[in-house]
Amino acid sequence: xxxxxxxxxxxxxxxxxxxxxxxxxxxxxYRKNSKKAKVHVGFDLNRAIPRKVFLSDGNGAERPFVxxxxxxxxxxxxxxxxxxxxRFDQWQDEEKNFICRIRASTQKTIIEKKQVATDxxxxxxxxxxxxxxxxxQTKRSLRLVGYEVDKVKYWIATSRYDLSxxxxxxxxxxxxxxxxxxxxxxxxxxxxxxxARSEHGLxxxxxxxxxxxxxxxxxxxxxxxxxVTIKRVRxxxxxxxxxxxxxxxxxxxxxxLKNQTKSSTIAKT
Length: 269
Hints:
Layout: E1 10-20, E2 29-31, E3 34-44, E4 49-57, H1 65-69, E5 74-78, H2 85-93, E6 97-102, E7 108-113, E8 122-130, E9 142-149, E10 152-158, H3 165-173, H4 176-188, H5 199-224, H6 230-268
Parallel strand pairs: 1-5, 5-6
Antiparallel strand pairs: 1-3, 2-3, 3-4, 6-10, 7-8, 8-9, 9-10
């Protein structure tokens, strides 16, 4: 698959998605009289394909999976649910790069402010420490980028100093690729329609869905130079159905010929 954004580095969108479970799935703890499992996915934003997947119970915390999903040369791109100042320090200590949207109300202590262009969507770019002093402030400084799109302001905390502020904004916008993937995965591949009940069986089912998606991604790229779309999947389904009909017709002709030959042989005997 082609790397569509090499200038941004190796971007991995990280997110979790809940799977409705049955009460008999006792391992999928969520709340009283409710069972859910949770799948944690690392999604290659440069190539629009999944890379890693983990399974936990519905109450499984999402932030610890960042370290498990990311390799040293990758940058995790996450939404506000992953904001944790202790984790920001930990990820930097582990040399794990991140681009994470944070809440606008987060306390910011500015260490060094950078200039931004007046005609840019970016309105803020600075080295800061996040949180309240003595309570939850980050021990290590990090970069904070603010930008505005369609009257919505986004605040992005990151350990990436090599990118421009506009590139940081672009990298975060690419995070929506994983949201599109989850929606497509649920709606069209029916991955969350339970077949298995055990943790192992559900993981096999999820992996089967990932393999199917990867095969579709390869097909759409090689045949049409496009990302996966339902239009191409429907076209592929028609091709497969036509091939099956043709094969079935050929097989039926073979059986008819075989029966005729057999009947002729018996008649002569």
